[in-house]
Write a sequence for this structure.
């Protein structure tokens, strides 16, 4: 498996991957809208024999500054449970760290994202439309998030389609 940055020829393949990986079109629409808004900071694909089998996206957060959101992540059905998503996420976290981002936020299963260092208690007490046990953060610079932010706001594309 090879992980590389998305290139323009991948856009349609990434859209189809998300359409096939999820029960509805929301994630594919989200990726397209983030791309159209210029909010994508890191977009990686996993390939096997030059075929895209996975994708991860990190987009710029509206608030706090210098933070990105992880997601969505998609992997083809035959390639699931083989570490594809984990390798994409780990690679993305390293790129984010090297690029100087301070925090990464994710909405997901704590049992899964805990292995990468994401913690729900990092965001406790901060205002967010997605507040709850599935909102987690990973701080990359060792600076407590609560000393730098009171609110978390994802990119505009994360709003419901009728609000967007």
């Amino acid at each position: 498996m090879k992980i590389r940055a998305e290139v323009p020829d991948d856009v349609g393949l990434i859209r189809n991957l998300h359409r096939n990986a999820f029960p509805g079109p929301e994630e594919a629409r989200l990726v397209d809208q983030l791309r159209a808004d210029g909010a994508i900071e890191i977009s990686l694909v996993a390939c096997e024999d030059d075929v895209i089998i996975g994708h991860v996206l990190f987009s710029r957060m509206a608030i706090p500054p210098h933070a990105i959101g992880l997601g969505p992540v998609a992997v083809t059905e035959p390639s699931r449970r083989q570490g594809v998503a984990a390798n994409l996420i780990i690679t993305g976290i390293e790129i984010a760290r090297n690029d100087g981002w301070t925090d990464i936020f994710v909405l997901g299963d704590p049992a899964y994202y805990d292995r990468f260092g994401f913690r729900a208690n990092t965001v406790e007490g901060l205002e967010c439309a997605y507040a709850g046990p599935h909102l987690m953060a990973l701080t990359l610079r060792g600076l407590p998030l609560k000393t730098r932010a009171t609110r978390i706001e994802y990119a505009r594309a994360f709003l419901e389609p009728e609000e967007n």
